[in-house]
């Protein structure tokens, strides 16, 4: 799907250092290098999402690289800033307090967290909210930076920002929040310098990396299921929730942010 360069976004006329985290992510994934990274992440994550399933799904963080053309509401934690992303002229994003999600419990079948949890100040509270919002046996699909990877040392990529996780750390955090982990895989096996190579060569590097240094993949992709009986942490914030149990998109843009329409995020990269 070709990129529409006429479509404005938050980073068009602002230096990178002045942008919020979410705007920097958006800027990166609309660059040539970002499109290359997105190609490999989609390849690993989209099969896990089962997008053909007609279920109540919620995005969290910056999930647009894997949900570029799906009508899905997205929560952006306030630690990351705000970005207006739309479908059919309606804003589908909301900047929220990551410790208190404005949606009723047991209202979603699947939550997809991508470039989100690593920016949250209170990881335990955020995961507890995800557990609350999911229906019984609902599924959390989570992508986080892999602490063992070279990518977390690359400040020019999103994986070099926020908090990376080891397998043990993310396992303990999810278990404590009331999730049963069903699968942990890794993705993005080419080294950061590999994104400057033609796609054909990068694909070969990624394939070889899967078998040669798989433990050092740039991200971990985790599938976890909500346990029916989960222990909730004490305390927390008072929540204002949707009484309907569902999110309703707003018309127009928020906070004077330009509205990026679905499908304007590049979903392929050109092979050189």
Features:
272 residues, alpha/beta, Rossmann fold, seven-stranded mixed sheet, four-stranded mixed sheet, 5 helices, 11 strands
Distance linking N and C termini: 16 Å
Radius of gyration: 18 Å
Total of helices: 5
- CATH fold-level topology: Rossmann fold
The CATH homology group name = Vaccinia Virus protein VP39
Strand content: 15-25%
What is the level 1 CATH name?
A: Alpha Beta
- Number of DSSP strand runs: 11
| Helical fraction | 10-25%
- Give the class from helix and strand content and strand pairing: alpha/beta
Strand order of the largest sheet: 5-2-1-6-7-9-8
What is the average of the pLDDT values? 81
> H/E order of the elements?
HHEEEEEEHEHEHEEE
* Low confidence ranges: 1-14, 240-258
- Principal-axes geometry comes out as globular
Describe the secondary structure blueprint for this structure.
Elements lengths: L20 H9 L2 H18 L7 E5 L12 E4 L7 E3 L2 E2 L1 E4 L11 E7 L8 H11 E12 L21 H10 L2 E9 L11 H14 L6 E8 L23 E2 L8 E2 L11
Parallel strand pairs: 1-2, 1-6, 2-5, 3-11, 6-7
Antiparallel strand pairs: 3-4, 4-10, 7-9, 8-9
Summarize the structure.
The protein is 23% helix and 21% strand. It is an alpha/beta fold.
What can you tell me about this protein's structure?
By secondary structure, the chain is of the alpha/beta class. The chain has a single domain (27-230), classed as Rossmann fold (3-Layer(aba) Sandwich), CATH 3.40.50.150. The protein is 23% helix and 21% strand. The chain is built from five helices and eleven strands; from the N terminus they run ααββββββαβαβαβββ. Strands 5-2-1-6-7-9-8 form a seven-stranded mixed β-sheet, with helices on both faces. A four-stranded mixed β-sheet has the order 10-4-3-11, with no helix packed on it. β6 (108-114), α3 (123-133) and β7 (134-145) form a beta-alpha-beta unit. Mean pLDDT is 81; it is low at 1-14 and 240-258.
């Amino acid at each position: 799907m070709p990129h529409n360069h006429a479509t404005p976004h938050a980073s068009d006329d602002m230096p990178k250092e002045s942008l919020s985290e979410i705007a920097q992510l958006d800027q990166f994934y609309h660059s040539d290098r970002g499109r290359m990274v997105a190609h490999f992440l989609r390849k690993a994550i989209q099969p896990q999402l089962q997008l053909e399933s007609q279920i109540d799904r919620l995005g969290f963080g910056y999930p647009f690289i894997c949900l570029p053309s799906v009508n899905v509401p997205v929560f952006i934690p306030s630690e990351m800033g705000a970005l207006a992303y739309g479908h059919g002229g309606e804003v589908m994003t909301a900047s929220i307090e990551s410790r208190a999600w404005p949606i009723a419990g047991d209202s979603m079948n699947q939550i997809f967290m991508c470039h989100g949890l690593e920016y949250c100040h209170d990881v335990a509270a955020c995961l507890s909210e995800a557990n609350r919002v999911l229906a019984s046996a609902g599924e959390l699909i989570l992508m986080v930076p892999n602490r063992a990877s070279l990518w977390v040392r690359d400040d020019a990529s999103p994986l070099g920002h926020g908090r990376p996780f080891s397998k043990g750390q993310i396992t303990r955090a999810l278990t404590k929040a009331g999730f049963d982990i069903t699968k942990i895989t890794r993705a993005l096996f080419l080294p950061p310098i590999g994104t400057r190579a033609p796609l054909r060569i990068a694909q070969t590097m990624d394939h070889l990396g899967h078998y040669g240094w798989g433990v050092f993949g740039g991200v971990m992709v985790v599938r976890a299921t909500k346990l029916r009986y989960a222990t909730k942490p004490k305390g927390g914030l008072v929540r204002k929730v949707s009484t309907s149990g569902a999110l309703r998109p707003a018309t127009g843009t928020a906070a004077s942010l330009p509205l990026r329409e679905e499908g304007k995020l590049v979903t392929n990269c050109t092979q050189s």
